[in-house]
Write a structure and sequence with these properties.
heterodimer; A: Rossmann fold; 6-stranded mixed β-sheet; 4-stranded antiparallel β-sheet; 8 helices; 28% strand; B: mainly alpha; two-stranded antiparallel sheet
């Protein structure tokens, strides 16, 4: 890995207050920064503000205070079509519920985000969608409907769909929440591999340490605030791990 | 004493020599299963002394030193007994982290919430490393290694859940009164039906 790093996402003082009778501070002055190509997890208990944070990073919601800068663009300056265009070009979303359209085939689901813009595309959309289905190991299932696929396969379709616009940033919310352990691991391994190969930046929120352990770095979010962060890989000696395995 | 039964199991599989047992053990349990050759030989001689293994009589000649080991009837019975016994788990009731957390509730410069967070960071880091190894492992050829890693990851998951649970109950934990020294009678506890006034003094407040 090269030493050269470039900041992809910066959140500064990100605050979200919901006023619905009573005031709920879902996010309180959150600062975070993610390098290009980095895989970052945000972990914390349910109700800690994880999904709110992801929605703000994804420009699906506006902060009460603070700002998000993505790829050098202050997204708070974007509105309407410009915001939608930015989101479509820069961000891929993966959710716990796969959100596939049940009457469309796997291939069509992958193409879907760009079908309205097909004529503007300077590439063959279907070819790219097939390529992505191949990358997630579902080339043979292109014509299957979501209902004909297992949960793990549906999530892999959703990964391919999130990649179809070649976004710089992938925002991922509990991607294995509806999967058993093994299918969940497979989805995570795949997500890690395809994003790594393509140099995508990933921000993933989860309550599961098993899922968070795939990340390079982790932020701990609690009661709407970042309480700690830690780099997971790199300097750790394998010795500690051997001891833990009882083979040291 | 896993070595003893591992050797019995391998000799049940095939009568062989000491140095080959070393390689066989690695092949069966993974090459991370580091056992030094000395330990294998010393265990073998103990097994021989106890009549669980025997050296076959070598073919007539000079090479009387290199005779393969084989299992005796008693050895086979011991192996069967071993397989039929469950392996009790270590529940880590004397876990070092548990002690650290409980002591941090009333002492020291580091609050328990920080102690918990430090532990969480460490466990997650270990889990990251194991996850990386698991991802790199080849499921077709390294299944035993993969399952070993998986077991460790699951234990880490449990440890992390326990850290979460302690954190969620930290406020309750803080309500527990700090420990106070209570003098206890020493020596043998009094026999039943023989009232002892010191045992009632102080003690647990109810």
């Amino acid at each position: 890995m090269s030493e050269q790093t470039e900041t992809m996402i910066v959140a500064e003082g990100l605050t979200k207050v919901y006023t619905d009778g009573t005031e709920v501070r879902a996010l309180n002055r959150v600062d975070l920064s993610v390098e290009r190509g980095e895989f970052v997890a945000v972990v914390g208990p349910s109700g800690g503000g994880k999904s709110t944070l992801l929605n703000l990073l994804g420009t699906l919601d506006e902060p009460t205070a603070g700002r998000v800068v993505m790829g050098g663009v202050d997204v708070s300056t974007l509105q309407g079509d410009a915001l939608a265009d930015f989101r479509r070009a820069e961000i891929g979303f993966i959710f716990q519920l796969f959100n596939l359209v049940p009457i469309l085939s796997a291939l069509e689901n992958v193409m879907l985000p760009l079908i309205p813009y097909r004529r503007q595309c300077k590439f063959d959309l279907e070819a790219r969608a097939r390529e992505l289905l191949d990358a997630v190991g579902l080339a043979e299932r292109a014509r299957h409907l979501p209902a004909q696929l297992s949960g793990g396969e549906q999530q892999r379709v959703a990964i391919a769909r999130a990649l179809v616009n070649e976004p710089e940033v992938m925002l991922v919310d509990e991607p294995t929440g509806n999967l058993d352990t093994r299918a969940g691991d497979e989805v995570m391994e795949l997500l890690q591999r395809v994003c790594d190969e393509r140099g995508r930046t990933v921000v993933l929120v989860t309550h599961s340490p098993r899922v968070a352990a795939f990340a390079d770095r982790v932020y701990f979010l609690k009661d709407g605030a970042i309480v700690d962060q830690s780099r997971l890989g790199g300097e750790r000696s394998l010795e500690a791990v051997w001891v833990r395995l009882g083979i040291g | 004493m896993i070595v003893k039964h591992a050797l019995l199991a391998l000799l049940d599989y095939t009568p062989t020599y000491g140095y080959e047992l070393h390689g066989l053990m690695e092949a069966a349990l993974g090459d991370h299963w580091a056992i030094n050759t000395g330990q294998i030989y010393s265990t073998l001689s103990r097994l021989e002394r106890d009549g669980l293994v025997v050296r076959q009589v070598a073919s007539v000649g000079e090479a009387a030193e290199r005779t393969p080991y084989d299992l005796t009837k008693d050895g086979k019975a011991e192996l069967e007994h071993w397989y039929n016994e469950p392996v009790p788990r270590d529940y880590r009731l004397r876990d070092a982290f548990y002690a650290k957390l409980m002591l941090s509730l009333f002492s020291g410069p580091v609050p328990p919430a920080d102690v918990l967070q430090t532990q969480r960071r460490e466990l997650l880091g270990e889990m990251h490393e194991l996850t990386r190894l698991r991802t790199e492992a080849d499921p077709a050829n390294e299944l035993p290694w993969l399952l070993l890693l998986e077991g460790a990851i699951m234990h880490l998951e449990a440890d992390l859940r326990w850290v979460d649970m302690c954190e969620a109950r930290l406020d309750e934990l803080r309500q527990i009164p700090s420990p106070r020294y209570v003098s206890r009678p020493r020596g043998r506890p009094p026999k039943r039906g023989q009232p002892d006034e010191t045992s009632r003094k102080g003690g647990h407040s109810e």
